[in-house]
Design a protein that fits this description.
Layout: E1 3-6, E2 23-25, H1 33-41, H2 48-59, E3 66-70, H3 76-84, E4 91-95, H4 99-111, E5 117-119, E6 122-123, E7 128-135, E8 151-160, H5 162-169, E9 173-178, H6 184-189, H7 192-198, E10 201-205, H8 212-224, E11 228-231, E12 240-241, E13 256-260, H9 266-280, E14 288-289, H10 323-329
Parallel strand pairs: 3-4, 3-9, 4-5, 6-8, 9-10
Antiparallel strand pairs: 1-2, 1-14, 7-8, 10-13, 11-12, 11-13
Length: about 325
């Protein structure tokens, strides 16, 4: 059954954002874990803090900057960045090694008329061909780490590095998102040159099951380069951690981090809260769901009014938001 989700509109975003479609076709309500969660809760129910942070950092990216979505799954984040900030002509690249999921990523891109690049490959600390272990839990838990989830199958996939890809294609990333199911330290190791020379912003998942020694080594390298390690959390400001103080914070509900190459200013937090309000307005009641074979309603993806236009009212009271979200956005 085809599903489209409402896209966030932020009246406080700078004029360069431009107008963009008010809905994103995510193809199906139940084919993957991500689509099932979008069906249950809308865009607001799928890692809203992470979405808001990515959209905020991309807002400050210079025109034609590169964005890498590593572990892209169906390409939701790559699609949002490309759709919302398309006026900047950002060079967004989605890396997804699982063949079936990468195919869905391409379908999502093409079905929405987007421009981001899709690469069916994994990234790590060195180039090779490796086994990708297919999780019994969900395709969103597939990993190069055999110990991450129970599995009965594996597929051989091409593996590259951030440094190698950036050198070959001539565009070092301004923003990197990493969600690779405990393989994050290896991805960061393979980005050593880019980190040193170009200092991208990084949004990175850190799971409790990630090898603590490998993660600590990766984070030590980042702090030596002057990065601040910030747990992405509803309450701001986000304290900066180091390679030793971060560990107690990986056990909670929030598991994504912002590795920032410069201190986070009040302007950043204000922009992030504005995007969070916009994402939280895209709840389940805003989904567009149609029977198989039926077209979406007329004007289902007509453009938002663009920056400066008033936001569409929520169809439900703000009290439906979890308390921590209401506190985060001042509702």
């Amino acid at each position: 059954m085809p599903l489209a989700v409402r896209t966030p509109v932020n009246p406080a975003a700078p004029p360069g954002t431009g107008a963009y479609p008010r809905a994103l076709n995510v193809l199906s309500r139940k084919e993957t874990a991500v689509q099932r969660q979008l069906r249950r809760a809308g865009l607001a129910g799928y890692e809203p803090l992470t979405q808001a942070t990515l959209l905020t950092v991309a807002q400050y990216a210079p025109p034609h900057a590169a964005v890498y979505d590593i572990g892209a799954h169906i390409g939701l984040y790559a699609a949002l960045v490309d759709l919302v900030h398309g006026a900047k002509r950002l060079q967004t690249v989605a890396f997804e090694p699982t063949p079936r999921t990468a195919k869905l990523c391409r379908r999502l891109r093409d079905g929405n008329g987007l421009d981001f690049d899709v690469r069916q490959m994994a990234l790590s600390d060195r180039s090779r061909t490796a086994e990708l272990y297919l999780s019994l839990k969900a395709e969103s838990s597939n990993s190069l780490n055999a110990a991450h989830r129970a599995h009965t199958e594996a597929v051989r996939v091409p593996v590259g590095t951030v440094d190698g890809f950036a050198e070959r294609h001539g565009h070092a990333p301004y923003l990197i998102k990493i969600d690779v199911e405990t393989h994050e330290p290896e991805v960061l190791a393979g980005a050593a040159g880019v980190l040193r020379e170009h200092r991208p912003w990084i949004v990175c998942e850190v799971l409790p099951s990630t090898d603590p020694a490998a993660m600590a080594a990766a984070l030590s390298h980042l702090t030596e380069l002057g990065y601040g390690l910030h747990l992405i959390h509803p309450e701001t400001p986000w304290p900066a951690h180091d390679a030793t103080s971060y560990a107690p914070h990986v056990q909670g509900e929030c598991r994504d981090w912002l590795f920032a190459p410069e201190p986070l200013a009040d302007e950043f937090y204000a922009a992030q809260r504005a995007w969070l309000r916009a994402v939280l307005a895209c709840g389940k009641e805003e989904n567009v769901l149609v029977p198989p074979g039926e077209p979406f309603p007329r004007d289902w993806n007509a453009p938002h009014g663009g920056p400066g236009a008033p936001p569409r009212p929520r169809r439900g009271p703000a009290a439906r938001l979890p308390r921590m979200w209401r506190q985060a956005v001042g509702r």
